[in-house]
Every structure is written in C-alpha cells, then in structure tokens.
Automatic annotation (TrEMBL), chain A:
It catalyses: oxaloacetate = enol-oxaloacetate. Coiled coil: none annotated. This is oxaloacetate tautomerase. Its EC number is 5.3.2.2. It comes from Magallana gigas. One of its GO terms (molecular function) is acetylpyruvate hydrolase activity. GO terms for cellular component: mitochondrion. It comes from the Eukaryota. The keyword Repeat does not apply.
From TrEMBL, chain B:
Its EC number is 3.7.1.5, 4.1.1.112, 5.3.2.2. The lineage of its organism: Eukaryota, Metazoa, Spiralia, Lophotrochozoa, Mollusca. This is Oxaloacetate tautomerase FAHD1, mitochondrial. Belongs to the FAH family. The keyword Metal-binding applies. GO terms for biological process: carboxylic acid metabolic process. It catalyses: oxaloacetate + H(+) = pyruvate + CO2; a 3-acylpyruvate + H2O = a carboxylate + pyruvate + H(+); acetylpyruvate + H2O = acetate + pyruvate + H(+); oxaloacetate = enol-oxaloacetate. One of its GO terms (cellular component) is mitochondrion. The keyword Lipid biosynthesis does not apply. InterPro entries: Fumarylacetoacetase-like_C (IPR011234), Fumarylacetoacetase_C_sf (IPR036663). It comes from Magallana gigas. Residues 15-215 form the Fumarylacetoacetase-like C-terminal domain. GO terms for molecular function: acetylpyruvate hydrolase activity; acylpyruvate hydrolase activity; metal ion binding; oxaloacetate decarboxylase activity; oxaloacetate tautomerase activity. Keywords: Metal-binding.
Length: 178, 216
C-alpha cells in the first residue's frame, strides 16, 4: 500500500528519501475505482472501474532489499513522500483496450521499460476482485497494477519520461531531498 | 477545541501509520530482535470499525491476534517535524486495536512479502473516540489493558515504549507527510494472542477510554 501523501503531479519533483542510495523507477497502469465495493467477482469488476491513470511506483530499492531480507514491512521503501508520480484522470472510454496497451519509460531519453499490459500475470478484473476480498475499495481509490521488466536505478539530476501508449505521458525530475 | 478534521478523524483521516515492535517484551514474545529504528507499516482507513460493529476474521486466516495500542491523532499537517515541535502536531489520542492475521504475517515474513494483507484487512482497526489532550496529560505513562472473554491478556504501560511519542512523530514525518486526522498507532505491549469467533474483547487506556468488540 502507498499512502495518498505519496502522490505528486507533473511540475513537482521526485525526491530521493532520507538515507536511500538506490532509487528505482517502475512505470504502471493505475485503475481508479468508481463505486464502493467489497468481495466482488472478476466478471463484475469492470462495473467498478471509473477510469485510469499513468503512475510511477518509485521504490527505495536498498530499503526494499533490506525489508525482504529482514522480513520487515515494505512501507518505507514504497510509501515515502513523492513515491507516486501520477497523471491526470484518463476516462474509461479513452482506454477501452487496457488489457493490451503499451507502457513505456525513458531515463534521460534512453528507453528502459517498454512493454504491453497484455504481459500481466493477473488481469485487471482478477486484481480488483482479489483486493476487494480483503479491503473495501472506495470511490477514488487507485490500484497500481504492477510494472513490466526494465525497472532500474535513477539518480539526482536525471529526468524520467513515461507514457501509456499515446494516451498519456508525463515527465519528472529526480532530485536530492536537501 | 479539536478541529473538525481531528474530531472526525475516522472519516477524514487519510492514513494509519503503525509502529511494530515498540515494546521490548512484545518483541521477545514473538522471537523478534529489538529494532534499532522504528518498524513502520500502513493500515488503510477502510480498516476502521467502531463499537457496535464486529471484528471479522479475514479470508484464509486461521490465527487472528489482538494487539491493544495507544493512538496519536495528528492535529496539524507537517513533515520533517523536529522532536521539540512534535507536541504541536498532536490533536488528541485514541484507543485502538491493531488486529493482525498472524499466520498471514508469518507467511509474508517467510517470503519477504509485504504485510498489507496481514495488517490492513477490513475491520483490522477497531477504534475508539477521540481523547482530548487534557484528558490524557501523561500519554508516556499510562496503562494499556486488554481482556478476552473477561480474562486479562495484555496489561502494559506506555512507559515501556522503546521509541517515545516525540521521536516517532519526528521519525515518521521525515519520510511521510503526516496530515491532520492521520493516526499513529504506537505499538503493543506483551500478551498478544489469538481470538476466535464469538470471543469478546474489552480493552482500554487506564480508566480514560475503553471499548468492547466481538469477533464474528
């Protein structure tokens, strides 16, 4: 889980969290929930999709490695301020083929991630259904549906550009926390 | 006088930041090392339940554990809050349970997976009413107690916290902006254990606040 305090929008910078020496980028398709629900089936899931967004699941990889080694929670490595750069809302109609849409990411102009959402192991309806078994989903909640291969480090001074086919794109600079 | 957001923290708060292993004896009882820095995890606000609602055992959980905790309700948004300014950001206190699917947590720990399911499921945060600051002038030295079906299981004191309240507010706010209405759960004393369907939990902060919940 990422707290909503992690959100930033274009124009704001990604800030390397305190003590992190290895910040990773992860481009993702986000699903925006339109109706409060719990325990729904995959076949009903699309009724609860209000729209989409493009997001980055910025990850403090060194904290992540330590958390996995020591069996600790992932909150610090995934939830820090500025760890969720997100686009504006994308209407459902603009992305009717969300199960086969390109996700791409470049760092300083060099392509790092470039894949289709058709490579997802668990589909969007399956994910919504599974999550809703444990957690009531509320209007405006977002589910980030995972990142394709190519996730890697970024450093202060670099620029990330990413996109969802030709439907949405955004650019963020990475800076030191100072 | 608490602001609207603070008095309606259960509806308007954005997150619950919980601290793990903040009492030495609790760390020991689960075979864990005492941490050198706070262990933090997130519970979503969808996990709140209030008296009158039941605690529900989540899917695939065979070992649901109780954990009584003192909660801090944030009264002023802030980040990089210094310890000497921490008190300015406290809006009040609250009694809470950090219900934990212990088997799901053990499985997550073995696989290096997140604790989200084990700690964040619906009804995993039974929560009391706001306690104003003047009703709890000494939050650093107050009893935390819990009974299951009338039998005392947890009986600790917040003076045994490893990391104190000002330190926690300061540490957490270095990484996560704390917003008005957010809650920090400050850890549980020793005596955690399982509850089953039909069990009744009574818990309290001294004689300042108490509540009762049934496990469905």
């Amino acid at each position: 889980m990422k707290p909503t305090s992690a959100y930033i929008s274009e124009g704001q910078d990604i800030k390397i969290p305190l003590g992190c020496k290895l910040l990773y980028h992860e481009v993702e398709l986000g699903v925006v929930i339109s109706k409060r629900c719990s325990n729904i089936s995959p076949s009903d899931a699309s009724d609860y999709i209000g729209g989409f967004l493009l997001a980055l699941d910025m990850t403090a990889k060194d904290f992540h490695i330590e958390a996995k080694e020591k069996s600790r929670p992932w909150f610090l490595c995934k939830g820090f301020d500025t760890s969720c750069p997100a686009s504006g809302f994308i209407d459902k109609e603009k992305l009717s083929n969300y199960s086969d849409t390109r996700l791409w990411l470049k760092v300083d102009g060099v392509t790092k991630q470039n894949c289709s959402t058709s490579d997802m192991i668990f589909s969007v309806p399956e994910i919504i259904s599974y999550v809703s078994k444990y957690f009531t989903l509320e209007v405006g909640d977002v589910i980030l549906t995972g990142t394709p291969a190519g996730s890697g480090p970024v450093h202060a001074g670099q620029t990330i550009e990413c996109g969802l086919a030709d439907i949405a794109a955004m650019k963020f600079a990475v800076v030191e926390l100072n | 006088m608490a602001s609207t957001t603070v008095s309606r923290f259960r509806e308007l708060g954005k997150k619950i930041v919980a601290v793990g292993r903040n009492y030495k004896e609790h760390a020991a009882e689960l075979g864990n090392a005492v941490p050198t820095k706070p262990i933090l995890f997130l519970k979503p606000t969808t996990s709140y339940v209030t008296q009158g609602q039941n605690i529900k055992i989540p899917p695939n959980c065979k070992s649901l554990h109780h954990e009584v905790e003192l909660g801090i309700v944030i009264g002023k948004t802030g980040s990089h809050i210094t310890e000497d300014r921490a008190a300015d950001h406290i809006g009040g206190y609250v009694l809470a349970l950090d219900m934990t699917a212990r088997d799901l947590q053990d499985e997550a720990k073995k696989k290096g997976h997140p604790w989200t399911l084990a700690k964040g499921f619906d009804t995993s945060c039974p929560i009391g009413d706001l306690i104003s600051k003047d009703k709890l002038p000494n939050p650093e030295n107050v009893q935390l107690w819990l009974k299951v079906n009338g039998q005392t299981k947890q009986d600790g004191n917040t003076k045994d916290m490893i990391f104190d309240i000002p330190f926690l507010i300061s540490y957490i706010s270095k990484y996560f902006t704390l917003e008005e209405g957010d809650v920090i759960l400050t850890g549980t004393p020793s005596g955690v254990g399982p509850v089953d369907k039909g069990d009744v939990i009574d818990a309290g902060i001294g004689d300042v606040s108490s509540f009762r919940f049934q496990v469905e």
